[in-house]
Design goal:
Rossmann fold; 5 domains; 9-stranded mixed beta sheet; 6-stranded mixed beta sheet; binds S-adenosylmethionine
Length: about 700
């Protein structure tokens, strides 16, 4: 047994902490339970033990999954009831939920069944970032050790949900690729490293006075077990195929002679026939064998006049250099979109039809698109709202995209059923199981509504008032088990309350009891706003700290790393907007945008537009699903000369100065209805349906 590394003082401290039920500081934990050093490993600050990560000692726990929407696609699904899914949220929370394997949505479906994980995480360019003028710019991106540990924690949990014969493929670049390789060696075992595959980078010519322009990136391929096999891949030979003599060096007594159309051929001296008789028979059927006139001396010293030749295969095996296909594509407007040919190879390397593919840094959803087209099951996850809506649209419009087998043709099929899922949302059961009074207090607190004791208008109970002075009622879902907040309910309410409530009334109701997908419904100039009971677990109930994850405000920051700890709950931002329609233009005038949250770091209220992350637009809304057509980051909405991507703080200052933000659309691009989704930096949405008169 090795000696305890703690001093006497530290021992006393540890006992004290344990007796008071307190956590031990990291350094003491390691002294108590030292990591068994492997031959070598990557050492850096903040590296947590695998066991602690899996035991959620990193503060990240499994979260309830909530189905947001079911998309029926072609109306058909998998025979075994599997449903493909797009998950919105932090991937570590999602992976831990899969690892825990309790949530009914995924129980026994994902853990141990994923055949391939493909990830293309951000490249951790934080400390390398240079402004476009060569200066080092400020960036909020994770850097160095923080980046490596961010990826490592996810890889550790991901390995646990792979099937025993599964594979992982990780895309990286020179930035931190080599550190990540060592991490993969540690987690998956160096012996399970199969390949470094070289792929194309989008060709952006940078300065070349100090180094060559990096034109490639790479994929690391690892297996979970040492004996699992990949599928060999082939491609059409780039050079013209030709006829070759069918013999190879060195004599071999077992292949001295071979039969072609009942005639015996003897191999040339010092050589043997390249193929076995069986293989030759196959090639004959493929019409790839011919006989030509040629004089030679055979292995027995006899003169021969005719020899066998074969036609080269028009396919060649694919090796680890994949620079013959593009690494990126630009089909969606999402930055860093991987190319479909690349994902085709990735997926075909390690799966067959019906296998599950998981991508938890999914971006524009290239993995789901290709997996769907080549009949694999898929799960994709991303933390960005833009990514989420890009993927949703990509799957809804998949029939219009290119076929994988024949890229000159359209795919022409709708997707199979898929669901969109939120992570970190509140488990409704828990709220619903609260007694009625507790529920009311809970939701009033949640939405910051001051409660009234006994206020009634025209016989209808008014439960409270929001800070802006407008009234609020709590929809008594427990009385109406089989109905919901629909047009009929609102018409009835309006008939009673009419103009007695001013221009606005808030209705608090559980999300699944509200029939409207947008934020309010208007009747005769009174807007009925829905405050949907959030599903994200709140600090007060769970006694847990939480860190909200942020949405980027500019395209340059789409790839920032983000993670979430615990949960936060949705609160609609406040939006005031108006629409102006001219002869050929539609103008959306945004006059106000306030997040309902205070600034996470300072706790201060945020000023007008300061918290605006992006505006997403569906220009021809079909009343069922939001289908993203265009997006504008807050930065894109600044007057052109004020554009400022390099400094996040500058961007906020510029946003604050805006009196109004205008989005111009061309009228002929817009349908009768369109939907706008305004997103704040914490991912809260305000959805607004607009009708063009
Ligand atoms: C390089 S992009 C992936 C692009 C993708 N391969 C494609 O084909 O479009 C990386 C993605 O990781 C996402 N991301 C960053 N941190 C995340 C987290 N903690 N959980 C889930 N997704 C995250 C970003 O939003 C971004 O979309």
């Amino acid at each position: 047994m090795s000696k305890l590394l703690l001093t006497k003082k530290e021992v006393e401290f540890v006992i004290d902490q344990l007796q008071n039920g307190q956590q031990l500081p990291d350094d003491l934990q390691y002294k108590l339970f030292p990591v068994k050093q492997k031959e070598y490993e990557l050492v850096y600050g903040g590296k947590m033990r695998k066991e602690d990560i899996l035991a959620n000692e990193d503060g990240v726990s499994p979260v309830p999954l909530q189905v947001e929407k079911v998309f029926n696609g072609d109306g058909k699904g998998w025979n075994d009831n599997w449903r493909n899914m797009i998950v919105f949220g932090d991937n570590l929370q999602f992976l831990k939920t899969c690892y825990e394997n309790k949530d009914p949505l995924i129980k026994n479906k994902i853990k141990g069944n994923v055949k391939l994980i493909y990830i293309d995480p951000p490249f951790g360019t934080g400390d390398e970032y240079e402004g476009n003028k060569g200066q080092t710019g400020y960036t909020a991106k994770s850097q160095g050790a923080e980046f490596v540990e961010f990826i490592r924690r996810r890889i550790i949990v991901a390995k646990e949900i792979l099937s025993n014969d599964g594979f992982i493929i990780v895309r990286q670049a020179y930035n931190f690729g080599f550190e990540i390789k060592i991490i993969l060696d540690e987690v998956f075992n160096k012996n399970n490293f199969r390949n470094e595959i070289i792929i194309n980078k989008a060709n952006k010519q940078g300065a070349i006075d100090k180094r060559f322009n990096p034109s490639t990136e790479f994929l690391f391929l690892y297996s979970k077990a040492h004996d699992s096999q990949i599928n060999p891949l082939f491609k059409i030979r780039s050079k013209e195929v030709s006829w070759l003599d069918m013999h190879s060096p060195k004599e071999n007594k077992y292949s001295h002679s071979i039969n072609f159309h009942k005639r015996k051929f003897v191999a040339p001296k010092g050589r043997h026939w390249t193929f076995s008789q069986d293989r030759l028979n196959d090639l004959i059927k493929e019409q790839r064998i011919r006989v030509i006139d040629k004089n030679y001396v055979d292995v027995y010293g006899n003169k021969q006049k005719m020899i066998l030749q074969y036609l080269m295969d028009n396919r060649e095996t694919i090796e680890s250099n994949w620079t013959d296909i593009p690494g990126y594509s630009f089909l969606t407007k999402y930055p860093t979109e991987n190319s479909e040919p690349l994902l085709e190879r990735v997926i075909k390397t390690a799966t067959k039809e019906g296998d599950i593919v998981l991508d938890f840094f999914a971006g524009s959803g290239t993995t789901s698109s290709v997996a769907e087209k080549i009949n694999r099951k898929w799960i994709v996850c991303d933390i960005g709202k833009l990514a989420f809506y890009t993927m949703q649209k990509r799957m809804l419009h998949i029939h219009k995209s290119k076929s994988i087998e024949n890229p000159k043709k359209k795919y022409n099929k709708h997707s199979k059923t898929f669901i969109t899922v939120n992570t970190g949302w509140y488990d409704l059961e828990k709220v619903f199981n609260l007694r009625q009074e507790k529920y009311c207090n809970f939701v009033m607190e949640l939405f910051e509504v001051e409660s009234f004791k006994n206020k009634k208008i025209s016989g209808i109970s008014i439960d409270g008032q929001k800070k802006d002075g407008f009234y609020c009622i709590i929809y008594p879902y427990w009385q109406f088990k089989n109905s919901s907040v629909d047009e009929e309910y609102l018409d009835d309410l309006h008939a009673h309350l009419g103009k007695k409530i001013g221009s606005r009334l808030y209705i608090i109701a559980p999300n699944n009891y509200v029939d409207f997908s947008f934020s309010y419904h208007e009747i005769n100039n009174v807007r009925y706003y829905f405050l949907k009971v959030p599903y994200q677990i709140i600090k007060e109930l769970h006694k847990k700290d939480f860190k909200k994850f942020r949405q980027p405000q500019s395209k340059g920051n789409v790839n920032d790393l983000e993670d979430a700890v615990g949960f936060h709950f949705m609160r609609q931002p406040q939006v005031k907007s108006a629409i102006k329609v001219n002869k050929d233009k539609v103008e959306i005038h945004i006059k106000e945008f306030y997040s309902d949250f205070t600034e996470e770091e300072s706790g201060n209220d945020m000023e007008n537009f300061e918290s605006l992350a992006m505006v997403l637009i569906d220009k021809n809304f079909n009343d069922t699903a939001f289908e993203l057509d265009d997006y504008y980051f807050a930065e894109d909405l600044l007057p052109k000369k004020k554009k400022s991507t390099e400094y996040e703080d500058n961007l906020k200052e510029e946003l604050k100065k805006q009196k109004e933000i205008v989005i111009n659309l061309s009228k002929n691009e817009c349908g009768k209805k369109f939907m706008l989704v305004y997103v704040d930096i914490y991912g809260n949405e305000f959805k607004e349906k607009m009708i063009l008169q």
